[in-house]
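WARN retry 2 of 3 for item q-0093 after timeout on previous attempt; input resubmitted unchanged.
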Amino acid sequence: EDSKMFVKPKHDNLRDEILESGFLTKSKWMEFVDLKGRRYLKSERVRKMKGLTLSHLFSVILYCDFGVLCTAFSGTFRRENVFERIEKVMARHSEFAVFGRLLVELVTKFGSDGDVKWGGERGPFFCGINCILNIGSFAICFKGPCSTSTQRAVALNFAKESGVVVKVNNDSDMSSYQRFFDCSWISNYFEEAERLWIGGRSECALRIVSITIVRTAKTYQKMMRALFLFDAMISGVDLRESPITENAADYKLISDLMEWTLNGGDGGSMELDLYLKNEWNLFRRNREEIKLNLRLMNRRLKSLSKLVMFNVVENYKKTANGMDNVLKPEWIPIFPSLNTVEIDTNGDAFKFRFEALLESMQSIPSSVTVIVDDGGQWIESALTDDVLASYDAAGWNMDYKYPKLTMKSKER
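OK item q-0093 returned
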């Protein structure tokens, strides 16, 4: 899948990209980028970064010191509108593909993480946005460039009176592996305490702790924790050592949001302000893939798991019973763009009965593909002739290719 997203650079090198973009002249490149980069290349800090090149230094200088260029570059990582095709986005990004590659290398190879024992840094980190913007993701990885600060005051300055301040943290075991680059020592704006994130890995998702509307000072912290836990659950995120655990209030909020959505926005006693409604709706409308790791759900999300599964039960070396580890179907229409649900049974530790799953499959939209990853442990032997015949009669094609079973509707 990643190979399909490969963007071929339009230009051979970073200098040509930037000069062709028109954001810098040759004289400005020489004075503010080239000379600065060569000076820092001789510094003690850079000499310790084995393998870091002059081009890497140029890339972070350009990102930190030239705001208009940075905005244009960052815009090539996302659609300009919901109708823009991904091919068009990739074509726009080809104008800055070398720039992007160098920044990803800078962060992943020479950046820091959250392992404080080895010189890493834990949050919180703050991001200021100068408008009321919905994020639509709560267990978040920054694949495109994102600047944060360790200073809330800096984020407030960027947000101004009309914006929002987003607080994120890398305070779980896996999220601490998400890498970032401390730009403060090389940026012209060292007082901003800037941390650059890019090329993030979904399994190392950060936690959105809160979103604060500056104008009203309203902070959606309780709501964000519940939404984070739910997002983490349906994204297969490992929450080991996370400082937050599910509680009854989290379950009630997500349950109410799901019911509110399924009732067409008629929430009864459900009280939602406009910002939270938009946040939830953006989250569910954009979702195309769901990953359910049953071991992770059983370990940290036992209560919330009941919103999407009948019952998550470890049954290693035992026979699967009833509706154990079977997907509930009624919540799936909440996500109108959903095309794939993948269930990881962690080998044969969380098996289920195919006869029980078929009851759910009959209510799942034909546009959704269901994939089960068993690590090659139990599915092949469970796919008896009777099971295959019953799914075929119900309109589902079953295709097992080690280690995954793919189930697609015949109507597609």
